[in-house]
Amino acid sequence: MPDSTFADDSLSRLRLHMAEHRLDACITTYPVHVAYLSGVFPPKDRLVAVLVTPESATLISPHPPADLPQTMSAMTYEDYSIDYVVNPAANFAGAFDRAVLTLAATVRRVGLEPAYLALEQWEAIQRSLNVEHIEDINPVLRQMRMVKTAAELPLIEHAEEITDRMYAAIAGNIVAGASEVDVFLTTLAVVKADPSKPAELDGDYVSGPRTEAIGGPPTTRRLQVGDLLIADLFPRLATHCADCCRTYSVGKPPQALIDRHALLEEALATGEKAIQPGLPTRELYTIVRSVFEREGMAQYFPHHAGHGVGILPSEEPRIIPGSDEILAAGMVITLEPGLYLPGQGGMRLEDNFLVTENGCRCLTHYPRRLTVL
């Protein structure tokens, strides 16, 4: 079952910000931040919201989760009936209106995420509250999510364990003649076997010439001897994700591919040694890229050198040359060097790391080698 313990920490963090900025309430309808504050990742096709005050927190959703934090109440709305046609959007709007109305007597200064607020919800806020001040809390919540709480780390590490198992399953079951869809189904079976619910799997499954395009969904293309296979996997178990990548060779690879993969391993290890609190992420990008520049290969490394991992498989901080973000203890980041040569195929290697007070700890345990299928 999902572990919502981390949500209490998230609510405490937000309330500290509310006290510092004299906010009477914060309201979000952004599903990612609903999950961050409630400990429950909402279904993609349902409307949800969280309302937080210094003394209370309310989740608005179709069904009351059994594992909500004890400090959070639930307000439900009807989204389905066998007896009549239901309008879920209208019912959610009614529940939202009722929830906001309960704040009318006390709320003057409110934190919102305007980019994710529907017109109906904004009108309900205007109608029910005498708002004197609005703060966009999206940047604040995104900043909070970068540094993980102690309760979040086991959730991420569990997703990492599942990822390790998926790579072992590929190595143990996939051979020439299998399709990219077969690779996906092999990894999906590992996720479905885990008791964590809900569970979700996304990723890049590309082989042969398709590896030159960096990523993409699985197709019916069948693996041939001599192909490379990129499996960039980002499972979500309950609320938190991992994001790792391995490249496989279908059949024994030539020395040139072995050497190229060794360059990826060196770039990743070089970046790993450099990770520490206070390091600008743009400098970490440069450190990873410098390995390719030394070999005259930097032109074949077209993407970021990594990013944050948490409730989303790809979030802040961004390890790119244009970032002003700084590494801090408690962040979970990826490093993912890749090389994509026209006519020769692409390969990528990615591990996840917890930034510690003195450096980092690798959370990924599957070997970094170029595995032969």
Rg result: 23 Å
Main sheet characteristics: 6 strands, mixed
| Sequence of secondary-structure elements | HEHEEEHEHEHHHEEEEHHEEEEEEEE
Q: What is the molecular shape? A: globular
Mean pLDDT: 94
Structural class of the secondary elements? alpha+beta
- CATH class division of the largest domain: Alpha Beta
What portion of residues is helical? 25-40%
Low-pLDDT regions = none
Distance between the termini: 35 Å
Indicate how many domains the architecture comprises.
2
CATH superfamily of the largest domain: Creatinase/methionine aminopeptidase superfamily
So, CATH architecture of the largest domain? Answer: Alpha-Beta Complex
H/I helix tally? 9
Bin the strand percentage. Answer: 15-25%
* Adjacency order of strands in the biggest sheet: 4-3-2-1-5-6
The fold-level CATH name of the largest domain is Creatine Amidinohydrolase
Number of β-strand runs? 18
